Amino acid sequence: MTHDVVVVGAGPAGLAFAAALAGSGLRIAVIERQPASVLADPPMDGREIALTHRSIRALQELGAWPLIDAEAIAPLREARVLNGGSPFALSFGSGDAERLGQLVPNHLIRRALFRVVADLPEIEVLAGQSVASIDGAIGNGAQGVSVSLEDGNRLEARLLVGADSRFSFVREQLGIGAEVNRLGRSMLVCRVAHEGDHQGIATEWFDHGQTMAMLPLNGRRSSAVLTLASAEIAQLAALDAEALGAELTRRYESRLGRMQAIGSPHVYPLATTYAHHFAARRAALIGDAAVGMHPVTAHGFNLGLASACSLGKLVAQAALQGGDIGGGMLLRRYEAAHRLATRPIYTATNLIVGLYTAEHPAARAARHAGLRAAARLPLVSRSVSRLLMQR
Ligand SMILES: Cc1cc2nc3c(=O)[nH]c(=O)nc-3n(C[C@H](O)[C@H](O)[C@H](O)COP(=O)(O)OP(=O)(O)OC[C@H]3O[C@@H](n4cnc5c(N)ncnc54)[C@H](O)[C@@H]3O)c2cc1C
Questions:
Q1: What's the rounded Cα separation, in Å, for the pair 270 and 182?
Q2: Closest atom of ligand 1 relative to the 169 alpha carbon
Q3: How far apart are CA 110 and CA 16, in angstroms?
Q4: What is the mean pLDDT of the chain?
Q5: CB 305 within 8 A of CB 13
Q6: Whether the Cβ atoms of residue 77 and residue 388 lie closer than 8 Å to each other
Q7: What is the position in ligand 1's atom list of the atom closest to the CA of 170?
Q8: Contact 371, 83 (CB under 8 A)
């Protein structure tokens, strides 16, 4: 074997998994198609990640949290869901003491995790490399798996981990199917400066024909996230900064006063995915390759990090006890735990998105009634807050 573990994808999930194996004595290769210079200093990609308390703890344990510039971290005190013109708002979180979590730019999380991994001698990052094929099990007892790279090199390892995002090539090569929902809509994300004070409150507004979220950053700044049909988003993304700011102000009905675009917009086509299995012979899927969440509940990376840590812990334990790090039992345990952690929230998120973006009158009436009922049931909002905060 050239390595013990081969990870495909140096996104936040792949890097967190590799970092979780520090000190296990395993030799790890991480294959990433982007060049090393981009991994070391990733450009801003518009994503502001709402991290739960559990994820913050995980990043602390991996040594990545102190490497994130404290001034770039913004507290998330409360989240509100608004429906059309209805005055009923569903509110989660309760002010300062019970912060929902922290908002951190995605590129800074990636940079911090890469710095952790780059300092670990047992991890070799093969940047600027893509996987050409997964060549299946090797050895009489299928002790390992072989991976061919596009430059012609071949790696062999006892465990292969696919962390190569929601349209995972590794998943496809392993013959694992997935639920794939292409929603025909796209998200435009753009930082804005505004006149009003957001008070640390994130707002998700399901308006007729559009969904608009405002995520509070430090100072009078927010990340505006607008979801529309993909063709409309493409037109907005082509506007100059002044016209885009005016359009976002108009669409948000000046709730935060005049808004000015302070960065380039980024566009993400919306698709959700859920792999039929998270494990195959000597292989596992983590991060978006396993579960590609709808961004509306801000759980994609939180769940991806949980998958990286949970598989990392099982593999590190097996290594330290001299067990089989890619054995069927271990992989089935990982799969069962991650399915339990993700299936309910994945299904609930898709149902909510379906209900809140449907435009027929019955759906409008149902969500209006649903919000009114939920607003009167503190138990609902308390249990959702607990789920979001995951202390
Ligand atoms: C607008 C937006 C807002 C979001 N907000 C939140 C939020 O608030 N909270 C939250 O928890 N999540 C959020 N998410 C989701 C979060 O960004 C993702 O879940 C997370 O980035 C997934 O990490 P990953 O490592 O699995 O995949 P990725 O970040 O996609 O990384 C995959 C890596 O694999 C590499 N790769 C792919 N194929 C190959 C190959 N064949 N060979 C080599 N390398 C390969 C890619 O180059 C990439 O570096 C948001 C997403 C979006 C789009």
A1: 6
A2: 41
A3: 9
A4: 91
A5: yes
A6: no
A7: 41
A8: yes
The dihedral of CA 353, 358, 362, 368: what is its sign? Answer: positive
Question: Would the pLDDT of 261 be above 60?
Answer: yes
Half-sphere exposure of 316 (CA within 13 A, CB side): 14
Q: Ligand 1 pocket: which of 129, 164, 215 to mutate (most atoms <8 Å of CB)?
A: 164
pLDDT tens figures, 163-213: 999 999 999 999 999 999 998 899 999 999 999 999 999 998 988 889 999
pLDDT at 388: 59
Domains assigned to the chain: 5-68+106-180+271-351 (3.50.50.60), 76-100+183-270+358-389 (3.30.9.10)
Nearest to 201 by CA among 92, 76, 104: 76
Contacts of 163 (CB under 8 A, 6+ apart): 7, 8, 9, 10, 11, 13, 14, 17, 285, 286, 287, 289, 308
Question: Ligand 1: distance of its center to the CA of 153 in Å?
Answer: 26
The residues pairing with 7 across neighbouring beta strands, listed in sequence order, are 30, 161
DSSP β-bridge partners for residue 144: 138
What distances in angstroms separate CA 47 from CA 62, 193, 209, 357, one per listed residue? 21, 16, 23, 22
What's the maximum distance between 2 C-alpha atoms anywhere in the chain? Answer: 68
Separation of 43 CA from ligand 1 center, angstroms? 14
* For ligand 1, mutation pick of 6, 149, 301 (most atoms within 8 Å of CB): 301
Amino acid at 253: E
**Centroid of ligand 1 to alpha carbon of 266 (angstroms):** 14
The rounded distance, in Å, linking the Cα atoms of 344 and 341 is: 7
Convert the pLDDT of each residue in 152-165 to its tens digit.
999 999 999 999 99
Within 10 Å of residue 219's Cβ, how many Cβ atoms?
A: 11
User: Is the per-residue pLDDT at 52 higher than 80?
Assistant: yes
Give residue 104 CA to ligand 1 midpoint distance, Å.
Answer: 14
CA 331 to chain centre: 22
- What is the reported pLDDT for 349? 85
Answer yes or no: is the C-beta of 268 below 6 A from any ligand 1 atom.
Answer: yes
Least confident of 15-19, 271-275, 341-345: 341-345
For residue 270, what are its two tokens? 């919306």
The tokens describing 345, both together, are 């929230």
